[in-house]
Design goal:
The protein is an alpha/beta fold. It has helices at about 1-10, 10-20, 30-40, 50-60, 75-95, 110-120, 120-125, 140-150, 170-175, 195-205, 225-230, 280-320, 345-350, 375, 380-385, 400-420, and strands at about 40, 100-105, 130-135, 155-160, 180-185, 210-215, 235, 250, 325, 335-340, 355, 390. The protein folds into two domains: about 1-50 and about 295-420, Alpha-Beta Complex (Aspartate Aminotransferase, domain 1); about 50-290, 3-Layer(aba) Sandwich (Aspartate Aminotransferase, domain 2). The strands form three sheets. A seven-stranded mixed beta sheet has the order 2-8-7-6-5-3-4, sandwiched between helices.
């Protein structure tokens, strides 16, 4: 314990907290700015910076254009409503949907909840009381499914293969005529695996069931044409796509809009599906960000692929024993989940502070010490899962940043591994 305390007292994290604790006598703001400038951020799957175009478009709606977008009797309300609808149209255009098929939410978590819980009565009325979700879905989908299990639904978890892919055959072996809904995320938030959503949706429809996909991690680099994907519902996140936090959207195929029941009741906004005053500025910002990503998705994919490829090669040269978790082929081009033998990822990440920011997995699992259930589902043992770190890259990052981060990571790993393997 004394050795651990000694190690902690000499770590960069301790230095930061000491400065914060002594903030009355130091310029804390200057120190934090220095830390931010120094840190190389490799956690873009957790959140992305706001695009300048989005910020510029949003700013007027924080000040002079402050009207309630649902005030129908005067020009202040009309101008805010027009801004919201312009944002909605941009999102619709980006995914080849109609504007009235887009519902604003507080984020992808709410959108996912809205689909699973909102379809409860529709599925009961249709006597389809089985729901299939992949076993590596985001926690909000798994927890929503667990909620429905308590309400009488049968929940079936379809498992991926060792690369994290839910195959068409795996779904075929699981589905039957009692299934009313299948939910499989497009891009996994921990290992970056891209699922064959179109194939899975086609199997689902063959059995008369509805298909939902959580596409929160996909819009930066993928074409999200809902017709090509053949999905009935699709959840989108703003802050994963260079937009503001606190806003998301749900695509609802027009044929099934009446099937959903609202989770939030009140004034009947969003066609009665989500009551409450919409945040005009956030709707505007999300529209700008999603439009930008849609136009740049192909070039974004190329840039991210180059960065992740260079990073992995440099890490591999320095630490040959590392391994990549998930698919090497069907993956998010800017995401790498890497196992570093002999270390605990949480301790390793602390040792990288404040130089490199990465994560052990989903930010939604913060504070949870158990190994990733996603890594367990693809067959990793506890030791390997606990030694795995997710690195994700940004579209404006430079090759120099990535090389520097790889050098820092390799140096810290060699230092820690020397101690571990010497014991």
């Amino acid at each position: 314990m004394d050795a651990e305390r000694s190690s902690w007292n000499t770590s960069p994290v301790y230095d930061i907290l000491s400065f914060i604790g002594d903030s009355k006598e130091r310029d804390l703001k200057s120190y934090i700015n220095m830390i931010k400038q120094k840190t190389i951020y490799l956690d873009f799957q957790a959140s992305t910076p706001l695009r300048p175009e989005a910020l510029t478009a949003m700013m007027p709606y924080f000040s002079e254009l402050y009207g309630n977008p649902h005030s129908n009797d005067h020009i202040k309300g009309w101008e805010s409503n027009k801004a919201v609808e312009n944002g909605r149209q941009k999102i619709a255009d980006a995914i080849n949907a109609d504007k009235d098929e887009i519902i604003f939410t507080s984020g992808a978590t709410e959108a996912n909840n809205m689909v699973l819980k909102g379809l409860e009565k529709h599925l009961q009325d249709a006597n389809k009381k089985t729901i299939i979700v992949s076993s590596i879905e985001h926690k909000c989908v798994l927890e929503s499914a667990a909620f429905l299990k308590e309400r009488g639904f049968k929940i079936v978890h379809v498992r991926p293969n060792s690369e994290g892919i839910v195959s068409k055959d795996a779904l075929e072996d699981t589905i039957n005529d009692d299934v009313g809904l299948v939910s499989v995320m497009l891009v996994n938030n921990e290992i970056g695996t891209i699922q064959p959503v179109k194939e899975l949706a086609e199997v689902t429809h063959k059995y008369g069931a509805l298909f939902h996909t959580d596409a929160a991690q996909a819009s930066v680099f993928m074409n999200l044409d809902v017709d090509q994907l053949s999905v009935d519902f699709m959840s989108l996140s703003s802050h994963k796509a260079y937009g503001p936090k606190g806003i998301g959207a749900l695509y609802i195929c027009g044929d099934y809009k009446d099937a959903l029941k609202p989770l939030i009741h009140g004034g009947g906004q969003e066609d009665g599906l989500r009551s409450g005053t919409l945040p005009t500025a956030l709707c505007v910002g999300m529209g700008e960000a999603i439009e930008f990503c849609a136009h740049q998705s192909a070039s974004n994919a190329r840039k991210l692929n180059t960065l992740s490829h260079d990073f992995m090669n440099k890490i591999k040269r320095s630490i040959p024993e590392v391994s990549l978790n998930g698919s090497k082929t069907f993956r998010h081009p800017g995401s790498l989940n890497i196992a570093f033998p002999g270390i605990k990822s949480s301790h390793f990440l602390q040792s990288l502070q404040p130089d490199v920011a990465a994560s052990t997995g989903s930010a939604c699992n913060s504070g949870i010490e158990n190994p990733s259930y996603v890594l367990a589902e693809i067959g990793l043992d506890r030791d390997k899962a606990e030694s795995s770190i997710r690195f994700s890259f940004g579209i404006d990052q430079t090759a120099e940043e990535i090389r520097k981060a790889a050098d820092i990571i390799s140096k810290v790993y060699r230092q820690q591994a020397a101690v571990v393997f010497a014991v």
